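re: the backbone from monday

yeah here it is again, tokenized this time
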């Protein structure tokens, strides 16, 4: 059973989390109310997931996030406000998501997200892009949500991976791809066309496009892509598109 740590100073919220998690029965969990108690728990147990309050009585500047990252845990951060200064100060930290704590429904959303993170371990996403830097950037963000990630730079390699890995549920593909000598030249559009010929109906495809006013997005959709992202998208939009497509 997956091990979860909740770090929250509010006794009322701790009670709500406990009741919902008892009903869910999908996690083994510990709930503590301070940085020091969280530190003790992390010294005793290995946690896969964490939900933490941004401010704690004994650590009110987000120190709990650095502590969890030190133990290779990327937390969901529960906060009263999401301000640019705080987000920038933790830009290099591994954080799954920021969630506002004002509404009871948001607590239920946290539980839903935790279950998604657990289920994501069984899902593989294929990233097809000619830039190694961009491939690694996508992998970093996908891995934060526990997806398994395969990276390639050519359509030829992508088709090979699809033949071998039947658990691939989503492809993220760029138009320009590396070419393999001696083989038919295939760009991202050609790859999408070939994939749709494979008749894998549950396989989703998200295309990466340079500009929203270009014909590129319509070309991808006509070839069989399910969705697209325009360059300069936010990380929040990235995750929304991923989950929307997997849900559908």
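seq for it, each position gets an aa:
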């Amino acid at each position: 059973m997956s091990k979860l740590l909740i770090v929250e100073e509010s006794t009322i919220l701790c009670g709500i989390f406990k009741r919902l998690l008892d009903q869910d029965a999908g996690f083994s969990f510990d709930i503590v109310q301070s940085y020091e108690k969280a530190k003790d728990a992390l010294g005793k147990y290995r946690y896969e997931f964490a939900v933490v309050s941004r401010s704690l009585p004994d650590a009110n500047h987000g120190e709990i996030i650095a502590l969890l990252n030190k133990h290779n845990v990327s937390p969901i951060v529960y906060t009263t406000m999401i301000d640019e200064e705080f987000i920038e100060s933790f830009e290099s930290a591994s954080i799954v998501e920021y969630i506002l704590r004002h509404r009871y429904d948001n607590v239920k959303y946290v539980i839903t997200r935790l279950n998604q993170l657990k289920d994501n371990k069984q899902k593989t996403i294929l990233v097809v892009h000619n830039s190694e830097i961009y491939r690694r950037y996508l992998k970093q963000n996908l891995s934060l949500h526990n997806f398994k990630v395969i990276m390639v730079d050519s359509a030829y390699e992508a088709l090979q991976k699809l033949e071998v890995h039947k658990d691939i549920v989503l492809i993220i593909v760029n138009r320009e791809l590396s070419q393999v000598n001696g083989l038919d030249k295939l760009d991202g559009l050609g790859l999408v066309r070939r994939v749709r010929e494979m008749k894998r109906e549950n396989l989703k495809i998200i295309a990466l496009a340079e500009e929203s006013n270009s014909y590129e997005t319509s070309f991808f959709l006509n070839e069989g892509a399910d969705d697209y992202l325009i360059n300069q998208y936010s990380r929040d939009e990235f995750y929304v598109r991923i989950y929307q497509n997997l849900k559908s």
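The chain is about 45% helix and 20% strand. Residues 115 and 188 are 33 Å apart (CA to CA).
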